[in-house]
Design goal:
This protein is α/β, with parallel strands linked by helices. It folds into 3 domains: about 280 residues, TIM Barrel (Alpha-Beta Barrel), CATH 3.20.20; about 80 residues, no CATH class; about 120 residues, 2-Layer Sandwich (Double Stranded RNA Binding Domain), CATH 3.30.160.270. The strands form 5 sheets. Strands 2-3-4-5-6-7-8-9 form an 8-stranded parallel beta barrel, surrounded by 8 helices. Strand 17 and strand 18 form a beta hairpin. The chain is globular and about 80 Å long. About 50% of the residues are buried. The structure holds 3-methyl-2-oxobutanoic acid and zinc ion (ZN). The site of 3-methyl-2-oxobutanoic acid (KIV) has 9 residues, from strand 6 and strand 7.
Amino acid sequence: MSTPRKITIFDTTLRDGEQSPGASMNLHEKLEIAQALVDLQVDVIEAGFPIASPGDFEAVQAIARKVTGATICGLARCNDQDIDRAGEAIHDAPDGRIHVFLATSAIHREFKLKMGKEEIIARAVAGVSRARKLCDNIEFSPEDAARTEPDFLCEVVEAAIAAGATTVNIPDTVGYATPAHMGGVIKDLVNRVPNIDRAVISVHCHDDLGMAVANSLAGVENGAGQIECTINGIGERAGNCSLEEVVMAIRTRADYYQASTNVVAARLLSTSRLVSSVTGLEVQRNKAIVGRNAFAHEAGIHQDGMLKERSTYEIMRPEDVGFQKTDLVLGKHSGRAALADRAKALGYHLEGEELQRVFEEFKKLADKKKEVYDSDIAAIADKQVNVFTDPWQLKSYEMKTSGDGIPAATVTLLRSTAENGEGELEERTDTYFGGDGPLDAIFRVIEKITEIRVVVRDYRVHSVSQGKDAQGESTIDVEFNGQLYRGRGVSTDTIEASTLAFLNAVNRVAMTEGRPPTVDFRDLV
Ligand code: KIV
Ligand code: ZN
């Protein structure tokens, strides 16, 4: 048997994944996820699109400076300003990459870029050459490659490699390809581009027709050496190729693909849960690999087979991807070290004051709840992660309904005045009478105090762990200035969870306000 080919896993959760509506993340959250991706042992982390906003730039730069163990990549359109900004953002990474992209399909050339073929080639060569002066590791993507004329795609790819691209990424930007089509595109490049051996071929597939994973695997079968993917498959529109699915397909069917990755499969579930709770994008129950039902056998005939021999109905073991027989781990007598250890296994690196806060919350919860599950710990850790970055904190709330049925709510918020939250805390209390019920009244007071008016677009509550004393997680989507912001809150009390979720969404608005995007990603040229 031949030695399996190592496939590079390029994770773009923090860039393409963040383009899921409402999934924007703050700096602290991005650093948490980047660290979890390193623990998962992905090879490349696309940390963001530095020119897009000052916040994006800061996040890529902070990840480049603090997160080691993976190549840190910044995205740039094919122009000097974008490329220089991406170069600056990844400058301090021990191992950095600039990812330059330019659309090549006839539709994009004619309607978006209004450029001819020669101009596209000249622009791609100029962009890659400029990036190459800033960094040795350059990826070039002909955007909408899957719909680009094959001859022209070969020409562009050859020119980009000649100009210094070390990876050529082939995106199916609109999720139009089928596996045979995508495989054919890669095969064509392998056979027809004379200098193709000087670069790694990558695939970047979107899931509009539900084929992103299959298309990526078809790329691998035909010579691609890198897959671009996201945790839980989140991303623009229907999302990207799901990392956990593609990695487990390569691992489970190594006999067929003759390939392997560096990913630590046992960390897939914790990373999936971390990304889900940070973005508020729930994982569907029946999602392959990490869904709650992915390993649940319901039919009697299956259960019978499983008891006799697991492999009758199981092609992977739940523990391979991080499921445990029971996730009941800690009780009220557990100490700080055990908590830090368990949190680390769940993807949270807690230390110092952050660990102390999580520990205090854990003790309070353990007093209230008989059993503390992994999901409870993850929920507490999540809640505390933002304490240092959210400008407004909830101190207390009270709600009443007067004799004539009019709701009234009083809320006290604390506002941190220093950027890192360590400065003076200013206290503000206000009351609101009216609204469509007590919860609405609470939301109105928060708006009054923060002077941020939003429109609630979606509101959900679900339990995050087992039992009748389970913690409830509330997720609220609000709209502000045409932008969607998602907030999350967790508590054993659903009113408190909802209040925290609303405040978290308002905090995201507050943090984005005054720092508008430099460019709109959806308005690329
Ligand atoms: O889908 C796409 O084409 C992209 C590029 C920026 C690679 O995300
Ligand atoms: Zn994409």
